[in-house]
Design goal:
Structural class: mainly alpha
Strand content: under 5%
Strand order of the largest sheet: 1-2
Order of helices and strands: HHEEHHHHHHHHH
Number of domains: 2
Number of helices: 11
Shape: globular
Helix content: 55-70%
Largest sheet: 2 strands, antiparallel
Distance between the termini: 31 Å
Number of strands: 2
Radius of gyration: 20 Å
């Protein structure tokens, strides 16, 4: 899931591919070329068959012009922050390791997550991660503040919010399972509350069989919530 999220951020600027491993380069190029050609930001050289960026793509990527499509602009300009994204992802991973210790080292974890959020202030993913960590610590107010700030980053974009709630649901489900194991079948009530809220948001943004699946999962969560453990 993280690799797909990273792909959506760096998609698909060839100017920074030299900073990536060959596997990452191939991954980006395989998915990016057709999309960028369609958007007029790349073209296929008739003589060599090589896919190349247009002059306008370079101007957009450096902030001197706009493609007229915010998603294209974001994709091109993301190439210049790929190192920051990787660094922040590594910080999240290390923070999770800190919280997995017995006892959890919440101070070090938050220090890393604060830096990740500072590096990527407009990226909801890191606020989801820090918010989930705050819940794990029992700081519900701080968690809710991060969750709200992450939603604000989406600026009402439905696709962004869908991705956000999917990620939040995944993180909170992992936290619930961890707490259930540690507390002998009783996760914290605050975890259930926020997991249910995220699940309901997802249900409202889906249709058909997917929506029915969310409904079934919500019912199961509500049933399990009856035995939840009150947090700090």
């Amino acid at each position: 899931m993280k690799k797909l999220r990273l792909f959506s951020l760096i998609l698909p600027f060839v100017f920074v591919l030299t900073a990536c491993d060959k596997e990452d380069t191939d991954f980006v190029m395989d998915f990016a070329n057709d999309w960028m050609i369609e958007k007029g930001m790349m073209y296929k050289d008739k003589k060599t068959g090589e896919v190349k960026p247009t002059i306008k793509a370079g101007l957009v990527a450096t902030g001197w012009a706009t493609s007229g499509d915010p998603k294209v602009d974001a994709a091109l300009q993301a190439g210049y922050v790929i190192k920051g994204v990787k660094e922040s992802d590594e910080l999240v991973d290390k923070a999770q390791e800190d919280m997995a210790k017995k006892p959890p080292d919440s101070s070090k974890a938050l220090e890393k997550l604060d830096k990740a959020v500072s590096n990527r202030p407009n990226d909801w993913y890191y606020k989801n991660s820090r918010g989930t960590t705050y819940l794990q610590m029992g700081n519900v107010t701080a968690a809710e503040s991060d969750f709200k700030a992450g939603e604000d980053n989406c600026q009402g974009n439905s696709r962004c919010l869908l991705a956000l709630y999917r990620d939040r649901t995944s993180q909170l489900t992992d936290l619930k399972d961890q707490q259930t194991a540690n507390n002998q079948n009783a996760a914290d009530c605050s975890t259930y509350t926020h997991l249910l809220a995220s699940k309901r948001k997802l249900r409202g943004m889906t249709t058909g069989s997917i929506q029915k699946a969310h409904t079934a999962e919500i019912r199961q969560l509500m049933s399990n919530q009856a035995s939840c453990k009150k947090g700090k």
